[in-house]
């Protein structure tokens, strides 16, 4: 169930928050709700990630690479 909440704050802060919400493609209400849910750990940390990054999270979990593999990759790529 959703309930209305009224917040009072500085007009400049509200303007900046609305602009941030617009750039994020989210409503200001959604941004506030997401922030408040983070305060007590209701939301897992992947929700705040962009979709592309979220899809990659954990992709290398079982990978067995080390520094030597990385150096070999760089040599092959740039030499």
Written account of the structure:
With 79 residues, the protein is an all-alpha fold. It has a domain at 11-59. Helices cover 56% and strands 0% of the residues. The protein is built from four helices and no strands. The protein has helices spanning 11-24, 28-39, 51-56, 67-78. The longest helix is centred in the N-terminal third of the chain and has 14 residues, at 11-24. It starts with 10 loop residues before the first helix and ends with a helix.
Short structural description:
The protein is mainly α.
Helix content bin? 55-70%
The unreliable regions are none
SS element count, helices: 4
Name the helix and strand elements from N-terminus to C-terminus, one letter apiece. Answer: HHHH
Structural class: mainly alpha
Q: What is the makeup of the main sheet? A: none
Instruction: Measure the end-to-end span.
Output: 61 Å
Radius of gyration: 20 Å
Shape: elongated
Strand content: under 5%
- The overall pLDDT, averaged over residues, is 86
Q: Can you count the beta strands?
A: 0
Structural topology:
Elements: H1 11-24, H2 28-39, H3 51-56, H4 67-78
């Amino acid at each position: 169930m959703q309930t209305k909440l009224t917040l009072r704050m500085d007009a400049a802060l509200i303007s900046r928050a609305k602009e941030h919400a617009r750039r994020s493609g989210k409503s200001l209400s959604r941004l506030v709700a997401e922030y408040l849910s983070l305060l007590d750990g209701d939301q897992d940390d992947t929700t705040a990630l962009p979709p592309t990054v979220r899809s990659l999270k954990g992709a290398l979990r079982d990978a067995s690479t080390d520094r030597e593999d990385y150096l070999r990759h760089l040599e092959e790529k740039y030499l």
